[in-house]
Write the structure tokens for this entry.
Amino acid sequence: MTTVGILGGGQLARMLALAGAPLGLRFLVMDTEPDACAGQFAPLLVGDYRDDTALAEFASRVDVATFDFENVPAESAQWLSERVPVFPNPRALAVAQDRLEEKTLFRRLGIPVPEFAALSSRQELDAAVAAIGTPCILKTRRLGYDGKGQFRIRSNDDAGPAWEALGAQAATVGLILEGFVAFERELSVVAVRGRDGEFRAWPLTENWHVDGVLSASLAPAKVEPALADIAFAHARKLADALDYVGVFALELFCRDGELLANELAPRVHNSGHWTIEGSETSQFENHLRAVLGLPLGETRMVGHACMLNWIGELPDAAAVLREPGGHWHDYGKAPRAGRKVGHATVRADSGEGLVDVLGRIGAVRGRDAQVAPVVVALRG
Ligand code: AMP
């Protein structure tokens, strides 16, 4: 009996545990919150990731450890890796936790990135804004996610308010200024690398964000095969450089037909949730296969898929469930503004079929704004 330990007990851990059940796996989830939603399906160890006693108990009860949450302190991941195999490795985690290290690595590997500059004072912010130009975005180097820890600078006058909002964090998590990319579309590569270095990617996904949070994903993205090949090559280079094991997502902006890397998510990713019903092997199953050293599953798609995120509260499920290719995921979390509480995946055999399903869901649920850009992309 193999027990997989997961640091972080949110919906990603929950979906990993669900995917692992048919493989005969046991799980232990560690989270700081006693009501972490993965705890509804797997034993939950409540503890602080910085607490060596709690981590030691976790290590003693698992055969291999992985993450549902990328902000586990790098030192804790390192400490754990001295006692039990940890995938992805702590160095890959540390790089992905820091926007500066991440972008520096992208650049070293020849993966294009938006302009960026590290800074630690108001004077350096002004210099960076002058060098990069407006519009640009001030971000925390670490501990930012879903658009949190970001301030958009539209003109030089915004530098003061941006520093007021985030300046205090220069000394703790660090700051980075990035050029604002007027992208045509956002894409992600969701890929997996095995312990033996085997690499597989799911078809490219197109993503739409609202207020920095993922709203909808479409796969396969309607892009030229040559562009998808460039994206896959970037992802592979990155995974090889980090000796990465497991699933990850590489988020990309597409501007004037060119790809610019935004960030690496060192875990299963929201833009890959469609793989549960939309591909031969889900990202969750393949992540488990990878960390356990098992053969990786096929990543080919089954038709066309669109994932709609439910933020704050769940709508009525019936409009999705009555569709032949409609699938519902309720994470078992209490409703709260801005919180990811579930998603739906709709699948159809053709792009036109998907347009029809999305039209019905958008109309019934009053969610036309959420589905509209996906329909435009499918028709384009
Ligand atoms: P992040 O937390 O960096 O993934 O940012 C969340 C979202 O904010 C991205 O998916 C984009 O929609 C937007 N965003 C972040 N950085 C930039 C940028 N440099 N240029 C344009 N949009 C951005």
